[in-house]
UniProtKB/TrEMBL annotation:
Organism placement in taxonomy: Bacteria, Pseudomonadati, Pseudomonadota, Gammaproteobacteria, Vibrionales
UniProt keyword list: ATP-binding, Nucleotide-binding
Species this chain originates from: Vibrio chagasii
Membrane-traversing stretches: none
Schlafen AlbA-2 domain sequence ranges: 14-144
Record's protein name: ATP-binding protein
Length: 382
């Protein structure tokens, strides 16, 4: 946040997606107008209202008695307003120390829900926010309360809202999340009811089983096939899927990090592979994961470990779910540390597991380690 403030203050100006205020608004009604204008800006990133900065862009800070609103106050106030479809801008209010002064930063999150507008006219004293009017900004200036954003900007908002500003493959990711509007033929495909140019073709079975422990030693070996994501019949992307038919469990093939293995000569003298299986939010694979989970239940379980949602589970897969891709490096390091600890205490850990007394081949050791490491790193034990 400090670097952001450095950059914005050094510009000596206000802009399309940021605004400075010397103090908090006297009335929430005026702040509502500011928030709505910033929420509707066409900008690929969050937007900011920064309090405690003078008109000549000097940090003057806020006194304690000037901090008139809390984040909870603002969120509650926004939720009371008649926003169309109850789409309320998402905000975050933080008080920070900057240049030895107390500064408040109100972040308005970038969301593809534009335009934000009101379904009822709002009045406060002699001020009015109009029903149906779309408020935004041009450069550093808000749309006046008695006016409306220009048609070009409003068109851009609606295009963003429906994903029409995106490449087909990016739009596909958003449409997969709208599971209820996909129509499956029960055999080998589906189409998106609101735009039938988007279709899914399901390939025939490629093989059963595979190279990883969870493909070989569970109560059944999963089938592997592909989901072909098509736009106007052109294949935009292929995603491999694994399906435990008897168990009723179908998920995309996870991403794999090959952390270490016996042939690596890293001094660990291990007898099995250390493979990390995961999905990352915001990716096409994770969008398909959500899609497939939602197909089977109205209240999908998107947590881990992953198991069937339609009956008491027998198979539970210790796959990780990352909030963002940057987390994989730290997770791999932690996973490798767990691997080293497991190798050092292998017999004790096996003897204290559900598999005590069983003959341990490579696949069984990988299962014991994967479940043990997952439990230690997430607190969720299988």
């Amino acid at each position: 946040m400090e670097k952001l403030l450095d950059s914005l203050l050094s510009s000596k100006s206000e802009g399309l997606w940021w605004d400075f205020k010397q103090k908090f608004h006297d009335e929430l009604f005026d702040l509502l107008h500011d928030i709505t204008c910033l929420a509707n800006v066409i900008h690929d990133g969050d937007r900011y209202l920064i309090f405690g900065v003078s008109d000549d862009f000097k940090v003057i800070g806020l006194d304690e008695n000037e901090c008139r609103f809390s984040q909870a106050d603002l969120i509650g106030y926004l939720r009371q307003q008649p926003y169309a479809e109850n789409n309320t801008p998402t905000i975050e209010l933080k008080f920070i120390q900057y240049a030895n002064k107390s500064v408040a930063v109100l972040t308005i999150k970038n969301e593809r829900l534009k335009p934000f507008y009101f379904t009822k006219e709002l009045k406060f004293r002699n001020k009015i926010l109009r029903a149906g009017s779309v408020y935004s900004r041009v450069r550093d200036t808000n749309t006046p309360k008695d006016s409306c954003a220009n048609p070009k900007d409003i068109k851009a908002m609606w295009l963003e809202r429906f994903g029409l500003d995106l490449p087909a493959i990016t739009r596909f990711q958003l449409l997969l999340e709208d599971t209820e509007n996909w129509v499956y033929n029960g055999i080998n495909g589906a189409f998106y009811a609101l735009d039938p140019d988007f279709t899914i073709s399901i390939s025939e079975e490629e093989y059963r089983g595979g190279n990883f422990w969870w493909q070989n030693i569970l109560v059944e070996k999963p089938i592997k096939y592909d989901y072909l994501l098509r736009y106007k019949n052109a294949v935009m992307h292929e995603l491999p899927v694994i399906h435990f038919q008897n168990e009723g469990l179908c998920v995309p093939f996870p991403d794999v990090e090959y952390v270490t293995h016996p042939e690596k000569n890293d001094g660990l003298n291990a007898e099995f592979y250390c493979d990390l299986f995961f999905y990352t939010k915001g990716t096409l694979s994770y969008a398909l994961f959500e899609h497939l989970r939602k197909l089977h239940t109205e209240d999908p379980d998107l947590s881990t470990p992953i198991f069937t949602q339609t009956k008491p589970p027998i198979i539970k897969l210790p796959f990780f779910i990352l909030d963002k891709g940057e987390q994989i490096h730290e997770l791999c390091n932690n996973y490798l540390s767990a691997y080293k600890k497991f190798v050092e205490n292998q017999q004790d850990i096996v003897d204290s597991s559900l598999y005590k007394g069983e003959d341990m081949d490579r696949y069984k050791l990988e299962r014991v380690f994967s479940e043990w490491a997952f439990c230690n790193l997430t607190g969720k034990c299988i």
